[in-house]
Amino acid sequence: MPLKRYGADCALIVVDVQNSFCPGGALAVPGGDEVVPLINHLSLLFENVVLTQDWHPAGHISFAGSHPGSQPFQSVELPYGRQTLWPEHCVQDSVGADFHPKLEIQHARLIVRKGCNPLVDSYSAFVEADRATRTGLAGYLQERGVKRLWLAGLATDFCVAWSAIDACAAGFDTTVIEDACRAIDIDGSLSDAWLQMRQAGVKRLRSDEV
């Protein structure tokens, strides 16, 4: 029996399934690699698949090492707002920035690289952390007639959540596939993220409901 396929008005957004966020990576999300087989299956249901990729220059402002005396997971105030400091991860052209080797990406329509500006972080696939600089993804999807989005990937409480909230703000009917995501969960960040997503209008489903 053939797999169900969503039409041209739907898209699957696969967020940051990269080596740095998987076991053994510099910023490993617990169980991060567990989403890969599920995302590979889900992607077969969609005509439109978009991948996002953290793509930081060395010395990025979000790295703890760029702030002498600071430690990873501390928060600092930057010109664009509050910023969590991270271990160095997803540096451009590094193995850590590569997609997980078992992620099947051949049929992806677009790869959105984010966090490229050395002075601004970017969790969201749509708008950078300064909340002013747009990635162009919303326009791309709108030009293709996409109205409904499903999100999966890493990490639920940061890049997935910010992307989902911004997708709703851009007018897309947005759903997060919860079992196709994994979270970092710093000091309750996961429950906070789900609350913020719900308040923004993001739907929440499991993969067997997609």
From TrEMBL:
Any coiled-coil regions, as ranges: none
Pathway noted in the entry: Cofactor biosynthesis; nicotinate biosynthesis; nicotinate from nicotinamide: step 1/1
Lineage top rank: taxon: Bacteria
Protein name as it appears in the record: nicotinamidase
Species of origin: Chromobacterium sphagni
Record bears the keyword Signal: no
One Pfam entry name: Isochorismatase
Boundaries of every Isochorismatase-like domain copy: 10-204
Keywords carried by this UniProt record: Hydrolase, Metal-binding, Pyridine nucleotide biosynthesis
Stated family: Belongs to the isochorismatase family.
Enzyme Commission number(s): 3.5.1.19
